[in-house]
Design a protein that fits this description.
Layout: E1 11-15, E2 38-42, E3 46-53, E4 61-68, E5 77-81, H1 87-94
Antiparallel strand pairs: 1-2, 2-3, 3-4, 4-5
Amino acid sequence: MFEEMNVPNARITFNDLVHINPKVPLVEQLDNLKEDLFQAEVDKDFIVDVGYYPEFSPTGEFKVRLIKNYDWENPVWGESCKDIAWIPLLIQAAI
């Protein structure tokens, strides 16, 4: 699913989502659920960031954020989900 992910209008700079199998329950993949999962640059001022919070927790959730000018403390957009199938849609929404 994530190996062939194409993000129009963005350049993928980091992608550890490829290590998560959407066909396997997340509770069986806790070692792959970390804060740094995916980043893509959009234009020169924006970054789409995907992470899992809290890391390695069976009660965590994925967060997709749009960061402007490296201001990680104040994302300009963000959404959360527990289902990995929503990640591509949320990345597109961020862009």
